[in-house]
Description:
single chain, Rossmann fold, 27% strand, 16 strands, 2 domains, globular, 6-stranded parallel sheet, 324 residues, 9 helices, binds NADPH dihydro-nicotinamide-adenine-dinucleotide phosphate
Amino acid sequence: MRAIIIEKGEGGTVARLGDFPEDDLMEGDVTVRVTHSTVNYKDGLAITGKAPVVRHFPMIGGIDFAGVVETSHHPDFKPGDPVVLNGWGLGETHLGGYAELARVKGDWLVALPQGLSPAQAMAIGTAGYTAMLCVMALERYGVTPDRGPALVTGAAGGVGSVAVSLLSDRGWRVIASTGRVEEADYLMSLGANEIMDRSELSGPAKPLGKERWAATVDTVGSTTLANALSMTAYGGAVAACGLAGGMDLPGSVMPFILRAVALLGIDSVYAPKARRIEAWSRLAQELDREKLASMTRTIACDEIIPVARDILAGKVRGRVVVEI
Length: 324
Ligand code: NDP
């Protein structure tokens, strides 16, 4: 079967589109015919080898997929069921979604919610599902739109675009921070009320800045996250999910101890199944389909490797669906 195969070469990892023997699929109680996958930031890291995402070689890339169950020994799934999978080490330790077939543990799968096609599920992908996990975390913490605006960093990226749309449709005034101010019209069309140049958040953070927002979805990390914290209003919260700008956090404890600001960590890979089901079902109900379509483009398998390079270079807007 055709697959994006990641191997360890002498000079580092090498990715190529090639043939992978079906017999070499890993253990699992469900085999899925993959119809769609996507390119997330982590796929960019895995394919280029810029970070040690892949821990088993040869690996099939792709940290998520949507498709139809082909064979199943799991009580919850039968042939023909549409399913979605993200995380659980897919494309890292377990053969991933950039292939015509995937064999996985049925416990990892989520039944595709009604009203969502496999292509739409991958337009959302791990990025959009993570944006929903961020929104759910902010809501669980109890921060509400009447307390002030919501900041989204890396707004023109995948997580950012979905977060802007979700927050706006839930009544938040959204401040979209981006390095691509030329994407202002795009971000406004998703629901942003204000565009902020990312440079405003990329310098050293003051221990406490002016209180400017009540909530943040941060995909950037580093000084951006430190600034987001320092400008969070009393009792607000920051959902931190990304490191597109760096994995350090050069900040101060002052927002936590003088303004009761909360830092909420978001992990999509090992999120418990009940939370995944809630996130996917809310995405099916709440995410505006027209906005989703406007932030998505579709590519073929032979474009995955160049797009993976582009996403690390910050050149990909919104979401990318791969037709397998
Ligand atoms: P994208 O590349 O689509 O989005 C990242 C965005 O960050 C870019 O579009 C850009 O936005 C901004 N950005 C890129 N480089 C820099 C930089 N050097 N400094 C400041 N901003 C920068 O990636 P995804 O949306 O797929 O993922 C976003 C982040 O979230 C990644 O770090 C990813 O690893 C992480 N993630 C984490 C998950 C988890 O489980 N915790 C799950 C999914 C994603 P703009 O052009 O608007 O400035």
